[in-house]
Please model this.
Amino acid sequence: MFDKILIANRGEIACRVIKSARKMGIKTVAIYSDADKQALHVQMADEAVHIGPPPANQSYIVIDKVMEAIKKTGAQAVHPGYGFLSENAKFAEALEAAGVAFIGPPKGAIEAMGDKITSKKIAQDANVSTVPGYMGLIEDTDEAVKISNEIGYPVMIKASAGGGGKGMRIAWNDEEAREGFQSSKNEAANSFGDDRIFIEKFVTQPRHIEIQVLCDAHGNGVYLGERECSIQRRNQKVVEEAPSPFLDEATRKAMGEQSVALAKAVGYASAGTVEFIVDGDKNFYFLEMNTRLQVEHPVTELITGVDLVEQMIRVANGEPLTITQDDVKLQGWAIENRLYAEDPYRNFLPSIGRLTRYRPPAETKAYTPGTQPGDAGDEVVRNDTGVYEGGEISMYYDPMIAKLCTWAPTRDAAIEAMRVALDSFEVEGIGHNLPFLSAVMDHPIFIKGDMTTAFIEEQYPEGFEGVELPEAQLKRVAAAAAAMYRVAEIRRTRVSGRMDNHERRVGKKWVVTLQGHEFAVKVKADKEGSTVKFEDGSKLRVASDWTPGDQLAEVEVDGRLVLKVGKISGGFRLRTRGADMKVHVRTPRQAELAKLMPEKLPPDTSKMLLCPMPGLIVKVDVEVGDEVQEGQALCTVEAMKMENILRAEKKAVVSKINAAAGDSLAVDDVIIEFE
Model:
């Protein structure tokens, strides 16, 4: 077995590989850019080597710099993680020439299947059903528009070397084809060093289901079930689960056997994923093969008990697989939610900054990859991350903060475990998508398992604006807030150094307002908790060990309720199940007077284009004096390897432009002003 491996990656996946290597007794080497000097993967590894400036195309994807780090440390093998150089045949070739093992498939398999155009041709030759499209390379925007018309809109414009949603655009007309082609080329060049683009038919209302395969160099291959990855935003997966709630055993078997056959046809040896789009009649079509470890691999590990990273290392060491297809048993259900540094209230635009608070829910200590989850109890919580409290989310890399996973014997139980885990996850300092993930877990379509890849687009067409809790849930929150506020008030009465004749008395009657609802309550406390009585005569029993100052409250109130707690004047900021609420708890007289107070209105920014995220201006498409139409592109902002086109919301005339290409802007900086 290898003594030392280098991880040619960063962040969460680098930390994940280190964990398995450590379990196997293998020393690890991290590489890092200037931006990652204090990163978690650098702290976890046995050694670390600096490889250059923050941009990936000057550090993490520069093969010569990685090879130099290998030579310097004497690493015998390299795990590429995902993204960066993981599907780069030239990197595998360089390792082979240096006598260093690549913890991934052979160079020939990467070339054959890692390139989306080549892989589709091979799939067609193998009589695998594929989506209609243009397999050749496309030189310019005019050719892209011509081909798009021949295929028929809508079309998917994709980077040949792409992955993770980078270099991908859907175009519904000629104008979008032109814009999408150029943006895809730019993103592909920046992220992968390869700007080749191809176009295929975009199949509406599909499900995205993928098969995990594992092959060795001795001709053995197995499939480890499927993953449902249909909930995506901008072609980037957000929620994954295993198994799929849609497939039956016959379809699973057919997809699995076809995936293994395809892998064997190219001499595949390592972990890999064959992706399919599946229609409502369970017809499946080959989409692509990812010749690397997938981001969402933990859900497969949770339902099979197979440590995929360990298996990749063993296969790279020349060992045969120790499991056969008959040994693969799918147990229970696993859900993964990707926690991203993006603001759901600003249409999921990237957010950067310092993590002033980062407290994930406690992981199930009894569980480690390579064991059957059921051995750890009825539920498993796993959090794969590459950040820590006080660390910084950089503008240079993918916005992922963590991958939160839960496992339980049934799908319903796994979803409920995820709801509690999300409510318990504390992140402050940046915008993040925790509220949105909570909303998805409670969405009827997700609960039924009827989602398609259009789920987010269809269910949140105007973006995410938070969650309005049902009245029964609001009553539970109101009862908890009243009991908590009473505890805080009692503490305030005991403050020392008070003026004489200024005794503060805590009453029993309160008025709780939240999300436009008002509840008049009476709180009766005892040693075990409080009974909160509402005007309609209903009562809720509240019990909690929460004390003022705690930022997380676990409350028993008609069941388990987990609240993130912040202090505001006269109440709390409470967050639960995707809802972010200002909850005021007042005496009846205070509530009466509060209704007379005028509401403070936000400033008018309707005649300004504000920068929605920290980023770099790529180009400005208009000039002073131009009349712009609704939907017209105004400028392009790049952040976290993604280009974002900002468009006019209505017809207007440009009066002033405050930024130019190359300018670095903060959130809400004014880019353009209108008459």
Observations:
- The longest helix spans residues 471-493.
- The chain has a mean pLDDT of 92.
